[in-house]
């Protein structure tokens, strides 16, 4: 894409701002700031990736993945405000997920251990894990409002905190995984995923692009399951007091 | 020989949630002995349910101490405490599964054998003998669920039951059946019950002792006046 063409993409931002102004949504400032941020962040990462791909230094790859995990866990942690230690728990869940995914992909020779593969796929894994973590925490909040009586009824029968909250955890894990599973059902029929589209636009063979997309879809599904289940194991005690009674 | 209380509290206190007065209740000193059936009465909003939930350690006290068999609550694991002192809420909570699964909850939680015969006898005693155990508990009426919840709790064989208006959804006949079962259980098993009730007739029928919670203080009364119960 030429620099001129890139400049013309701003017309989409202008359209959005005009619509916001017309409908009095009051989003113009947000849209402008977000658009500038997105452009700067993406251009910056483009140059960073160029540098990393050239040097191929493992420490740089680890540093980039660590930054991704930190930002992702901070962002998902906003859904669990008030829960002490939620950020490091999310970071640990995402980190374990990322390590497991990379170990499988590289160990089974599905991808080559080069930055060109590791960084983009890690970005998708961490990004999806972040969304799953946010969905899990949101659902748990709803569960605790709706199922408070059920949890306390089990506690009153001498159940441990884990036993009492298990049905809620199960529902929250399930609910956080549904978008990923649904995405798998409709991919190719309803939407052409970004990575595959990007490869095709960049001139790759569509069948080759589809193969990578299949890898991504499958790996994101297991990443969703690992993140969500790990998070449920690491966080369930946060909803209880030291006395094993539900927090208000 | 001096009889040891199962449960004893010393200066138990709870801060008022809205702060309209400093304490919801304070200086609550109680002793509960085996075979005690205690009616807990008082106007709405005095903290009766909160007190029972605190005794079950479902809610934190803001002051004072609780001792079970002379051992401070902090030395008991909450699960062990709640196996001995069990709270039964007013709003019936049944698991969205079969009646049998609900009845077997306690045995599943604590990996003990399900006493099917005892469950059957209790179900009959509370007027639920006709209910099929394969039926989904969520399909039962409010009164049936309230009784199922009670039977499920009884299978825990706790030493003290904290009953929060557990007959509020029942007709007179069912209420009588539940009262008879619990009083029989109290005499034969030595179990103690603390009942919250707003029904003066029920309070006098079930309460061998009566506590009245009013103005932030708990008093033991011999026979409550009808207006105190309501």
Overall description:
The complex is a heterodimer of chains A (248) and B (230). Chain A has 248 residues and is mainly α. Chain A folds into two domains: 1-55; 58-239, no CATH class. Helix content of chain A is 78%, strand content 0%. Chain A is built from ten helices and no strands. In chain A, helix 5 runs antiparallel to helix 10. The longest helix of chain A is centred in the middle third of the chain and has 32 residues, at 115-146. In chain A, 29% of the residues are buried. The model of chain A has no long low-confidence stretch (mean pLDDT 92). Chain B is α/β, with parallel strands linked by helices and 230 residues long. Chain B has a single domain (34-61, 76-229), classed as 3-Layer(aba) Sandwich (Rossmann fold), CATH 3.40.50. Chain B has helices at 48-55, 78-84, 99-103, 105-110, 116-125, 142-154, 172-189, 200-206, 226-229, and strands at 7-15, 23-28, 31-32, 37-41, 63-68, 71-72, 85-88, 160-164, 192-196, 209-214, 217-221. A six-stranded mixed sheet of chain B has the order 7-8-9-4-10-11, sandwiched between helices. In chain B, a hairpin with a 2-residue loop joins strand 10 and strand 11 (217-221). The longest helix of chain B is centred in the C-terminal third of the chain and has 18 residues, at 172-189. Chain B is globular and about 50 Å long. Chain B starts with 6 loop residues before the first strand and ends with a helix. The A-B interface holds A 149-150, 152-160, 163, 241, 243-246 and B 56-60, 78-80, 82-83, 86-89, 91, 93, 95, 105-106, 109-110, 149, 152-153, 156. Chain A: Belongs to the UPF0014 family.
